[in-house]
Amino acid sequence: MKIAMVGSGYVGLVSGACFADFGHDVVCIDKDQSKIDRLHEGVMPIYEPGLAELVESNVKAGRLTFTTSLAEGIAGAAAIFIAVGTPSRRGDGHADLSFVYAVAEEIGENLSNDAVIVTKSTVPVGTGDEVERIVGECRPGHQFAVVSNPEFLREGAAIGDFKRPDRIVIGAEDEFGREVMREVYRPLFLNEAPMLFVNRRSSELIKYAANAFLATKITFINEMADLCEKVGANVQDVSRGIGLDGRIGKKFLHAGPGYGGSCFPKDTLALLKTAEDHDSPVRIVEAVVKVNESRKRAMGRKVLDAIGGIERARGKKVALLGLTFKPNTDDMRDSPAIAVAQTLTDAGVDVHAYDPEGMELARPLMPEVTMCSSPYEAITGADAVAIVTEWDEFRALDLNRVKQLAKAPVLVDLRNIYRPEDMATRGFSYASVGRP
After folding, report:
1. Total-model pTM
2. The domain 208-289 is classified under which CATH number: 1.10.1040.10, 3.40.1440.60, 1.10.3720.10, 2.60.40.1640?
3. How many CA atoms lie within 13 A of 61 on its CB side?
4. Is there a catalytic annotation at residue 18?
5. CATH topology of domain 2-198
6. How do residues 13-27 score in pLDDT, each as one tens digit?
7. In which residue ranges of the chain is pLDDT below 50?
8. Cβ pair 110, 70 in contact under 8 A
9. Taking the chain, what is the end-to-end CA distance rounded to the nearest angstrom?
């Protein structure tokens, strides 16, 4: 089957490469000529473990190609995926659907065969209806269906998530759409991946509801961590104790500096706006958004406390280890590290930072922060070290070297990757999240 993937960003490129690996013929389309040129050269526009190798092998096999021409790319495609960005719209937080609708219009103008048009982008409820209207107004007389097929990819683990999904959600209004989507995902039948067929609006809402629920779990355990610090409890024990309950589950119950990234911040805002537009408030999600934003600055204040408080902070140096919102990605969008760094620089702290993949994207977001070539360069002369992102290389720091290089043996662990008793034995002044 020929598949066209309109948009060669994170979702489009990962999905296109995986579909090609399943044996489909895939064309990835993007208007950015420089991006397409780099892809032809084997240069990935994003960092995702295993993606470069997957793209290279399928390009060599002739199953994966790239073009800037939508008309050329969708010709003969049985399934045309829309995988363009839907960022939060400035001013009101609504999802900006201008790219989605522009692609829909161009598809309608160039459609030359029967096809299923699939919204892979994260879109608010009702977007598929509008895409159907747009294509229908200018389609050249061919049968088409508009289907919703949300993605559930975790950055840093996207290829595994795509090939071994928890579920495949397909929102279709007719049998033509369902039949084509069964063929698209037929290679996953052997994996017995659950395929959930629902109507289009339910599919669109599932994506937002899932991300809002996960964001709620993160925010809940972060508030429990604050309570643990007040009462002398250990949030990791609390997390295990509630996570072993099958009704709750242990995932997304790790206390930290708050959620960030490309999905949770914008999707919770978009869900709030959808609920507001339909006069059906989601007050729990409203609280989640507010608590998460305040938490990021609070983590900056935790670091300030470790160096004597805001009154004594000016002129001191802090090393930040980890800048991306999570490990195994270069994504800086809404990363807690941005707010932590801003809180520190606002207090007059000299911030030096290191991240294995995110520094290039971090520089324009943190102009007052000095980027370093290694964690130990950042640590040299620091009054405190703060671990903000739990990259593997920070889990096994040479702590003796850290003590030698730092001005003071102070470590603020915002990801709880070290044990308090071990750090005390090694002579560190150690602060973590939600632990006595």
Report:
1. 0.92
2. 1.10.1040.10
3. 16
4. no
5. Rossmann fold (3.40.50)
6. 999 999 999 999 999
7. none
8. yes
9. 57
